[in-house]
Amino acid sequence: MDLAFSPEQQAFQSEVRAFLAEALPPEIAARVGRGEEPTRDDMERWHAILNDKGWLAGTWPEAFGGQGWGPIELHIFEEECALANAPRIVPFGLKMLGPVLMKFGTAEQQAEYLPRILDGRDWWCQGYSEPGAGSDLASLKTRADRDGDHYIVNGQKTWTTLGQFANRIFCLVRTKFDGKPQEGISFLLIDLDTAGIEMRPIRLIEGGYEVNEVFFTDVRVPVENLVGEENAGWTIAKYLLGHERTNIAGTGFSVQAFAQLKSLARQVTRGGKPLIQNPLFAARMASLEAELDAMRLTNMRMLSKAAAGGRLTAEPSMLKIKGTVIRQAINDLSRRALGPAAAPFPSEDLDNLAIAPPGHAHNAAGYFNNRKISIYGGSNEIQRNILAKGMMGR
Ligand SMILES: Cc1cc2nc3c(=O)[nH]c(=O)nc-3n(C[C@H](O)[C@H](O)[C@H](O)COP(=O)(O)OP(=O)(O)OC[C@H]3O[C@@H](n4cnc5c(N)ncnc54)[C@H](O)[C@@H]3O)c2cc1C
Predict the structure, then answer these.
(1) Between 42 and 239, whose confidence is greater?
(2) Are 296 and 304 contacting, i.e. CB atoms less than 8 angstroms apart?
(3) Which of these, 59, 81, 116, 181, could form a disulfide with 121 (CB 3.0-4.6 Å)?
(4) From CA 394, how far away is CA 390, in angstroms rounded?
């Protein structure tokens, strides 16, 4: 097992760094660096810049407009993007639906949808979760009843991330009502402009708007929008979730957030001295840094296994737990470093109030927003169940 980058990988890392220095718009990087949510325009601009470069869908095969990157190239690319404060690439079309269509879609579906994901004509969102069907996804109730050459969809999805910007949604729907719940689910592509669809915002605890409820009332969906066989959607759903958990440790985000924490601890003073010199605080930081280094090493170990053709089983679950726990711990220490200055919420004009040191005004919002990372993509409790089954044989 080799944990160091090869000369070719190092060259690729330098190429990515140089590209980011030149192509990432500074005003977008500044916004992301301050902990603000990137705007719709930020995300679309960055998407287009990456597409022009050919790096938007790096892991897609060349035949579909990608670069055929392996897991290490993807890791290098994503870590460098995070360190440069690039906006996160919206994953629903690129990392979820794209691979699903390549594996399960018809040639017509691939020709129709894949180019539209790349050039940004389509913004997809994910319609899996429902009230009462999150961790227990197979109990979902949104139904699709066949009526000639259409399905009639009725039901509700929830937690639909960035649905307010999307024009299409891929949904898990129930098409069979008896037998095992997993065997009656289908995977359907739905145009959000179809009559009978209503999107309602859900406000998050920090005041942000990034998730929605979606209601379907007698929505007519052409049967050609079915992906794979009817009632075979559970296999597709699991395949997609496997992709959702790729690179889930988000090491780049943690490394970047830890560097900001360090800089904060140098600026903030307690008892006339920089906080970083406070023995208790320094010990907390050292312990977190050790955890972070260990996670990066584990991540490299797993990437190296995957790059050598090894199959990852329970490992992504371990990385998801570690990655999210560490990011939340960094958020927590930053909040403690700021003390009362961590109190304001983004509805206030934070950057001009100068309550917190420059670049840290959105700390409290970030802290609360990141409570989500141990819930979505399969909660950490569910990941622990997977780990227990996979590694202890229970
Ligand atoms: C910000 C955000 C964005 C999201 N975006 C999307 C999206 O775009 N599309 C989409 O489809 N979904 C999305 N989700 C939904 C997400 O996948 C679910 O929230 C998640 O799967 C948990 O489901 P739940 O919320 O129904 O909680 P529940 O499943 O009701 O769980 C409640 C609690 O019980 C625990 N629990 C449940 N079952 C077990 C068990 N068997 N063993 C141990 N503990 C258990 C859970 O860990 C959790 O702590 C998003 C969620 C959030 C918070």
Answers:
(1) 42
(2) no
(3) 116
(4) 7
Distance 319 CA to ligand 1 centre (A): 18
What is the secondary structure of 26-41 as a DSSP string?
Answer: HHHHHHHHTTPPPPHH
CB 79 within 8 A of CB 16: no
Mean pLDDT, the chain, whole residue set? 92
Element (H, E) at 386: helix 380-392
The predicted pLDDT at position 345 comes to: 60
d(CA 287, CA 293): 10
Please confirm, yes or no, whether 210 is among the known catalytic residues: no
Q: Is residue 138 in contact with ligand 1, taking CB distance under 6 Å? A: no
Nearest to 91, CA basis, from 117, 110, 65: 117
**Residue 288 contacts residue 328 (beta carbons within 8 Å):** no
Is residue 134 in contact with ligand 1, taking CB distance under 6 Å?
Answer: yes
Mutate to test the pocket of ligand 1, among 204, 375, 382 (most ligand atoms within 8 A of CB): 375
State if residue 375 touches ligand 1 by the CB under 6 angstroms criterion: yes
282 CA to centre of ligand 1 in angstroms? 35
Q: How far is the CA of 354 from the centre of ligand 1 (A)?
A: 37
Reported confidence tier of residue 362, pLDDT bands at 50, 70, 90: confident
Ligand 1 binding pocket includes 128 (Cβ within 6 Å): yes
Mean pLDDT of 132-149: 97
Q: 348 to each of 36, 266, 277, 322, 359, how far by Cα in Å?
A: 13, 26, 32, 33, 15
Q: Which of 261, 158, 173 is nearest to 225 (CA)?
A: 173
Query: What is the distance between the alpha carbons of residues 47 and 51, in angstroms, rounded to a whole number?
Result: 6
Q: Which atom of ligand 1 is nearest to the CA of 204?
A: 1
User: In sequence order, what are the residues at sequence separation of 6 or more whose Cβ sits closer than 8 angstroms to the Cβ of residue 377?
Assistant: 241, 244, 245, 248, 320
Residue nearest (by alpha carbon) to ligand 1 atom 7: 160
For residues 65 and 114, the answer to whether their CB atoms sit within 8 Å is yes
For ligand 1, the distance from its centroid to the CA atom of residue 96, given in whole angstroms, is 18
* Any atom of ligand 1 within 6 Å of the Cβ of 160: yes
Q: State the Rg of the chain over Cα.
A: 22
pLDDT digits (tens, 9 = 90+) for 68-90: 999 899 999 999 999 999 998 99
